[in-house]
Amino acid sequence: MLNDDQGKIYIAWDSKFDLGIPVIDNQHKKLVNLCNNLYEALMKNKTEGDSTWQSSFTATLKECVDYVKTHFHDEEVIMQAAGYANYASHKKSHEDFIYKILETTKEFDKATFTTALQFVRFLYDWILRHVAHEDKLYVKRVLEYYRERQSQK
Fold first, then answer.
1. Distance between CA 127 and CA 48 in Å, rounded?
2. CA-to-CA distance for 143 and 23, rounded, in angstroms?
3. 20: alpha, beta or left? (left if phi > 0; alpha if psi -120 to 50)
4. pLDDT score for 1
5. pTM: predicted TM-score of the whole model, two decimal places
6. Residue 32 and residue 127: Cα distance in Å, rounded?
7. Which of 2-6, 11-15, 54-58 is modeled with the greatest confidence?
8. Helix (H, G, I), strand (E, B) or coil at 47
9. Burial per residue of 94-118, b for 16 or more beta-carbon CB atoms within 10 angstroms, e otherwise
10. What is the pLDDT of residues 15-59, one digit of tens each?
11. What pLDDT shows up at residue 146?
């Protein structure tokens, strides 16, 4: 759910995001919260000409980037261990996302409020597409891997 009103959440967690892999689901929930925090940091200070939104937004964005890197690493370790056949293309998707974020943030001190809001929208769209679709593609293999490991105990 997307909501552009101040004081409201930007993305509401939905069961369609659940993968059934608790560690990854919890990380995805945190990513959604971080996206909401970015939106909130913008909306709190959206007064025209007020640049205080940039410092709070930049600090929140750094936290988001750091967490995304941790999440991608954890997800990639699980996919590799499970022998997920499309691991390389999924990893490339992660790399492309990180590149996009880093490129955007390089010039962020010159960003406008509108540019920042567009960036939050990009994150929202990416979360919907990646988590709700692309991540679901590895779930079957990872869950099979977990079952195989349990049966070997």
1. 29
2. 12
3. left
4. 45
5. 0.82
6. 8
7. 11-15
8. coil
9. beebeeebeebbeeeeebebeebbe
10. 888 999 999 999 999 888 888 888 887 777 665 456 677 777 777
11. 93
Would you say residue 153 has pLDDT above 50? yes
Which pair of structure tokens corresponds to residue 91?
A: 């990893």
State residue 5 phi and psi, 5-degree precision: -90, 140
What interhelical angle do 113-129 and 52-82 show, nearest 10? 20
The encoded tokens of residue 35 equal 């996206």
- 64 touches 38 (CB < 8 A): yes
Secondary structure of residue 48 in the 3-state scheme: coil
First to last CA, the chain: 42
Task: Give 81-105 as a DSSP string.
Answer: HHT-TTHHHHHHHHHHHHHHHHHHH
d(C-alpha 39, C-alpha 29), whole Å:
15
* C-alpha to C-alpha distance for 151 and 19, rounded to whole angstroms: 21
Each residue's pLDDT tens digit, 93-123: 999 988 888 887 777 777 777 888 888 888 8
